[in-house]
Design brief:
The complex is a heterodimer of chains A (about 325) and B (about 350).
Chain A: H1 2-29, H2 34-39, H3 45-55, H4 61-73, H5 87-122, H6 127-141, H7 144-158, H8 175-209, H9 212-219, H10 224-262, H11 267-276, H12 280-308, H13 310-317
Helix pairs in contact in A: 1-12, 5-6, 5-8, 5-10, 5-12, 6-8, 7-8, 7-10, 8-10, 9-10, 10-11, 10-12, 11-12, 12-13
Chain B: H1 5-8, E1 41-52, E2 55-67, E3 72-76, H2 83-90, E4 98-107, E5 110-111, H3 117-123, E6 128-131, H4 145-152, H5 161-168, H6 187-201, E7 206-210, H7 218-235, E8 238-243, H8 246-252, E9 255-260, E10 263-269, H9 270-275, H10 280-287, H11 326-330, E11 336-338, E12 341-343
Parallel strand pairs in B: 3-8, 3-9, 6-7, 7-8
Antiparallel strand pairs in B: 1-2, 1-4, 4-5, 9-10, 10-12, 11-12
Helix pairs in contact in B: 6-7
Classes of the chains: A mainly alpha (about 325), B alpha/beta (about 350).
């Protein structure tokens, strides 16, 4: 088990390195550059050369790359080209915002999705089931940025003062305002994922309900409620966990859109700015963070599988699975 | 080259037709209606239909039989003849698109078709047990086997109770493996575990066994059959034993019912059924058993399939019947008593 985790973490580091390398070269291959973004229109050649030197861009690309790798290994992500602050400090400010938003959306929509899915499956073909099915299809087909825009318009123009539709209040300054501010973006961020969770759980519960082991449990006189909890849900949750894991990946890209619409100073907003300005160190750091979150989430899901699925667990214990 | 059936076919699949002495002690005396007193289970004109896009399809029609305490009734028939559906109907666990459309099922004086779901649930397991067809998939794959035994049986943790239960089905060796999951057990072990729960642990009055041996290999099959017979003798439970294997059924049943296209076409004491089959379908089934015919003779098969027979007017077997007459296509035969058999055939009384 420990060996497995170790191997997975090593693989994860390799993937990160590949991703960062790709981003490193793609940034430099892209038209334009930080110098143009920094100096604006028509700078003098002398000024250009000076700034290029300051950014270290006058060196050959492979030298830049080796330097970058060296700094990365020693944990130094460099300074932002524009604000000249350490990139790690910027990430340290912005990451908690994105994490709070994502976790709020995650917690809310996992609970809602699971509840709706279980309810729909249990009352299959009822009115409740119909509502869950229709609402989830609609929710799935709404792009999160569009929903975010609609929410901004509705709560910014028509229903004023109920929930803030833009900006961010840090939790430390005013917890209540902070939480109120999370509501709308979290709602927009996770709606589609919540719908997928509900639909997946519903489908796998309905499938599980037809399994032989459910019939046998009922034939032994087990109550419907206990069958549902101990047998149906326990087995139907396994495929649903995969979907929940994928949802974390969706959140990574979702925050980019939602943070920009709601003007929230998180990683999603930072990453857009960094790439637009060709702020190489900041862009790479943001990529590192989002990729790490995504990869770690995947690892956690795989480990959860290990907990939930005895077959996989046994495979590891007797060495048949790799 | 035709192989000698005596050597290649496992013993359990060769029915012995020499006489009632091989079919259990009660077989000889058992008449067509259940012998002695009021029956434990009494089914009258039971009908089950499936709702499909093309309308209602009958799966079980006009099935009537009685079952006494301690008696084993075997039900044979081809796939799709309605035997499993009937068991599910007796448990009131039909799939969502199926329902009992008419008939009565009286169990120990209680009318099951009129019972509310809650009352039915109290009977399930405790008074009417079920041994499922596929042991490999009948326990939840995500929960240790021991915990699942505890779901269904109280007081297992008392001294020696669990040991006794497992020993009762010859599974004493798995006692220390009960924290394992179902996939870590063999099909035969799982089937015996299920029998331990459904029969030994729950001690029901009536046990419904839905092809409990079809997924097992021949030696395990024999062990399981012996176990079931032993439990009947020890606990006096009545059993409805469904299978499509005539060899198996001849070994365990006191009486045998033959189903075709949802109808019970013949029911007779086991010995009588094998010695003097009255229905042409029963006869054809017996003819089709390998090993009953002389070496070198080709095996007989019944021409055609059972498909669609539920919808025909008249006798459902008419299209495949060797003894068919015009009347068979128009009029569904009533039940007649011929010898020890109850038969649905217009020509049952004719001596052929």
């Amino acid at each position: 088990m420990l060996r497995y985790v170790g191997r997975r973490v090593a693989g994860l580091a390799l993937v990160l390195l590949i991703v960062l390398t790709l981003v490193f070269f793609m940034l430099r291959a892209a038209p334009g550059g930080p110098v143009d973004a920094y100096l604006g229109m028509n700078p003098t050649p002398e000024k250009r050369a000076e700034v290029e030197h300051r950014f270290g861009l006058d060196q050959p690309v492979w030298v830049q790359y080796v330097k970058f790798l060296g700094n990365l290994v020693s944990g130094d992500l460099g300074n932002s080209l524009f604000s000249d602050r350490p990139v790690s400090a910027i990430i340290g400010e912005r990451l908690p915002v994105t994490l709070e938003l994502s976790l709020a959306a995650f917690a809310f929509w996992v609970v809602v999705g699971l509840a709706a899915g279980a309810l729909a499956a249990r009352r299959r073909d009822s009115f409740t089931d119909g509502v869950v099915r229709v609402v989830s299809v609609v929710a799935l087909s709404i792009p999160s940025f569009w929903l975010a825009l609609v929410l901004v318009v509705v709560f910014g123009l028509y229903i004023k003062g109920v929930l803030p539709s833009s900006g961010w209040v840090p939790f430390a300054r005013d917890p209540w305002d902070n939480l109120r501010g999370v509501v709308l973006p979290a709602f927009a961020l996770g709606l589609g994922s919540g719908a997928i969770i509900a639909r997946t759980l519903r489908a796998s519960m309905i499938e599980t309900a037809q399994a032989d082991y459910v019939s046998f449990a009922r034939a032994m006189g087990m109550s419907e409620r206990r069958v549902l909890r101990a047998v149906t849900l326990r087995n139907a949750i396994i495929p649903t966990v995969t979907v929940i894991g994928l949802m974390l990946g969706v959140f990574v890209s979702g925050t980019v859109l939602v943070e920009n619409v709601f003007n929230i100073p998180g990683i999603g907003q930072t990453i857009v700015g960094a790439f637009r300005q060709h702020d190489y160190p900041l862009a790479i750091a943001c990529t590192l963070i989002t990729a790490s979150v995504f990869l770690v989430a995947n690892l956690v899901v795989d480990l959860l599988y290990f907990v939930l699925n005895p077959r996989i667990r046994a495979g590891f214990l007797n060495g048949t699975a790799r | 080259m035709a192989a000698a059936p005596e050597t290649t076919v496992p013993e359990t699949t060769v029915p012995d037709s020499t006489g009632p002495d091989t079919t259990g002690p009660e077989a000889a005396g058992a008449g067509a209606p259940a012998p002695g007193g009021s029956p434990l289970l009494s089914v009258r004109d039971l009908a089950v239909a499936f709702r499909t896009r093309d309308g209602e399809v009958p799966a079980v029609r006009e099935v009537s039989f009685d079952l006494a305490r301690g008696e084993i009734l075997g039900l044979v028939g081809e796939s799709g003849s309605g035997k499993s559906t009937m068991l599910t109907a007796l448990m009131r666990m039909l799939p969502r698109n199926a329902a009992i459309t008419s008939g009565r099922v009286s169990f120990d004086g209680v009318e099951l078709t009129a019972l509310r779901e809650n009352g039915m649930r109290r009977l399930r397991g405790d008074r009417i047990g079920l041994i499922p067809q596929r042991p490999m998939t009948s326990l939840s794959p995500a929960t240790p086997v021991g915990r699942q035994l505890r779901w269904h049986l109280d007081g297992l943790d008392e001294d020696g109770r669990l040991r006794e239960l497992l020993a009762g089905v010859g599974l004493g060796a798995v006692l220390d493996r009960l924290d394992g999951y179902p996939f870590e057990f063999s099909g035969g072990q799982l089937q015996r575990l299920l029998i331990a729960v459904a029969a030994l642990g729950k001690r029901p009055d009536l046990l419904l066994a839905d092809e409990p041996t079809t997924t097992l290999d021949a030696t395990v099959q024999a062990q399981v059959l012996r176990l079931l017979l032993e439990l009947r003798d020890r606990m006096g439970l009545a059993m409805v034993f469904v299978t499509h294997d005539l060899g198996v059924i001849s070994q365990v049943s006191d009486r045998i019912g033959v189903m075709y296209a949802g109808r019970l076409v013949e029911i007779a004491p086991a010995g009588a059924l094998f010695d003097a089959p009255r229905h042409p379908y029963t006869r054809a089934l017996l003819e089709a058993i390998p090993g009953r015919r002389r070496r070198g003779e080709p095996l007989k098969a019944i021409p055609g399939t059972v498909a669609g027979a539920n919808r025909l007017p008249g006798c459902p077997f008419a299209p495949r019947c060797a003894a068919v007459v015009d009347r068979c296509h128009e009029e569904n035969p009533e039940v007649r008593e011929v010898g020890e058999s109850l038969v649905r055939c217009h020509r049952a009384e004719e001596d052929r």
